[in-house]
Amino acid sequence: QVQLVESGGGLVQTGGSLRLSCAASGRTFGDFAMGWFRQAPGKEREFVAGISRSARPSYYADSVKGRFTISRDNAKNTVYLQMNSLKHEDTAVYYCAAAPRISTTVVGTTTQFYDNWGQGTQVTVSS
């Protein structure tokens, strides 16, 4: 198991930027493929971005492609989500997720792929 703690959420205006961080502890961070998901009120949790153990490849939901960037720093046990050009529809609770994998290049895009979840951080984009 790995413990995940998200931070960096908040209130931002349309067109603004935020950077989310997810700090991991408990096991070797480099053993985990990582992902970001989000859940808006009344909606199911949806995939936002994922990154492999080796940091390449990474995948994005079509709705955030070109605006969001996922990255990881294995030395700091942290995965990041840089969010630019934010839209009102990006408003949601954002969750970090981790999955231990032998492969260094696999990326998960579904909730079933991930075994460990953080508590989430709220992102609100005002229109």
Task: Give a brief rundown of this model.
This protein has strands at 3-7, 10-13, 18-25, 32-39, 46-51, 58-60, 68-73, 78-83, 92-100, 116-117, 121-126.
Please give a handful of descriptors for the protein shown.
single chain; 127 residues; mainly beta; 11 strands
Describe the model.
The structure is a single chain. This protein is mainly β and 127 residues long. It has strands at residues 3-7, 10-13, 18-25, 32-39, 46-51, 58-60, 68-73, 78-83, 92-100, 116-117, 121-126. Strands 2, 4, 5, 6, 9, 10 and 11 form a 7-stranded mixed beta sheet that branches. The relative contact order is 0.32.
Question: What is the fold's blueprint, element by element?
Answer:
Blueprint: E1 3-7, E2 10-13, E3 18-25, E4 32-39, E5 46-51, E6 58-60, E7 68-73, E8 78-83, E9 92-100, E10 116-117, E11 121-126
Parallel strand pairs: 2-11
Antiparallel strand pairs: 1-3, 3-8, 4-5, 4-9, 5-6, 7-8, 9-10, 9-11
Order of H and E elements: EEEEEEEEEEE
> Shape from CA axes?
globular
Mean pLDDT across every amino acid position: 97
Helix-strand category: mainly beta
Q: How would you classify the quaternary structure? A: single chain
Helix content: under 10%
Question: Largest beta sheet, briefly?
Answer: 7 strands, mixed
Query: If helices are DSSP runs of H or I spanning 4 or more residues, what is the number of helices?
Result: 0
* Backbone CA Rg: 13 Å
Beta-strand content bin: over 45%
Give the number of DSSP strands. Answer: 11
Low-confidence stretches: none
The first-to-last residue Cα distance is: 39 Å
